[in-house]
Amino acid sequence: MDNSSDVSKNASTDRIEKQILLKAPRSRVWRAVSNAEEFGNWFCVDFSGKQFVAGQSIQGNITYPGYEHLVMDLLVERVEPEHHLSFRWHPAAVDVSVDYSPEPTTLVVFELSEVDSGTLLHVTESGFDRIPAARRAEAFRMNSGGWEEQMVNIEKYVAKG
């Protein structure tokens, strides 16, 4: 399945959409997405001992080389077992000298669908048009590339079993 499309069919600047066919049962993909420790393993964040709970924030130290000095902060919106996980965050919040808290967040949605050959994972991040203009294009570019990499990461992760 082609997961190279950076934007939706209408060439939106507000959303990034990615999808990948994972050759694993939906229950396995769901665990990789919804279990905070497993999510952190493929997403490169240390969420050890933490859980994704709707309505609650979760923080973890980023473990991706060169970004270890950063903390990822998510507000979990919705958890629908085996189908949907969504959270809000500040995209491309990589400058420790900047307070991103006054900025709007983007919404990241993971949706899982069972198909004959495995599980279709659809990831959408929306809300970029509300990000301050001075950093909107860079945040979109960084996260678009980031989601490309994360699709490869989760594919490798669930293939391990």
From TrEMBL:
CDD domains: SRPBCC_CalC_Aha1-like_5. This is Vanillate O-demethylase oxidoreductase VanB. It comes from Paraburkholderia solitsugae. The lineage of its organism: Bacteria, Pseudomonadati, Pseudomonadota, Betaproteobacteria, Burkholderiales. It holds the Pfam family AHSA1. Belongs to the AHA1 family. InterPro entries: ASHA1/2-like_C, START-like_dom_sf. Residues 23-158 form the Activator of Hsp90 ATPase homologue 1/2-like C-terminal domain.
